């Protein structure tokens, strides 16, 4: 997703950078668990959960939803590291490249025309994340953003390769004035286990 609703805003607003990704491999000193279910709040780090290390980095508002009045897009940024030496972790929409090609958002005109269909396509393709906002199910879409140190750029991807760090970029469409969001992540690479990300409206200020 080049220059569109998430990456540029994520990296600019949160101060995230290549250096931040470099420290992702050092996630530690906090939870290290393979429990069936682990809850993560903004700022929390999980050093190793079934070979996945995560930190719920930030939450912030992106923009209003153009096709659903009274709603807005809330962005969630999770720093992630794949600690496995051989297994690739599929995370989020498996066809992110095709969605990017079908709904380009590289100009103002394209954003105006394609932001809503892009988001709905991303959400439909994201089956490993379920989001509840103030007790009601809401749409959400996710993918991995990988950093290329050679070109100093970020690339959308459907997976996190072994021993690599990246960002899980999650975008949710929620009613304006929302108070509480719960994100349940059910990975494809383990069975009967979940990560739960708990967010509140006050967390937006932490971005």
From TrEMBL:
Region forming the signal peptide: 1-36
Using the record for this protein, list the coiled-coil segments as residue ranges, or answer none: none
Which InterPro entries has this protein been placed in?
Answer: TAT_signal, TAT_signal_bac_arc
Which PROSITE patterns does this chain map to?
A: PROKAR_LIPOPROTEIN (PS51257), TAT (PS51318)
Instruction: Indicate whether Thylakoid appears among the record's keywords.
Output: no
| Alphabetically ordered keywords of this record | Signal
Q: What is this protein called?
A: Tat pathway signal sequence
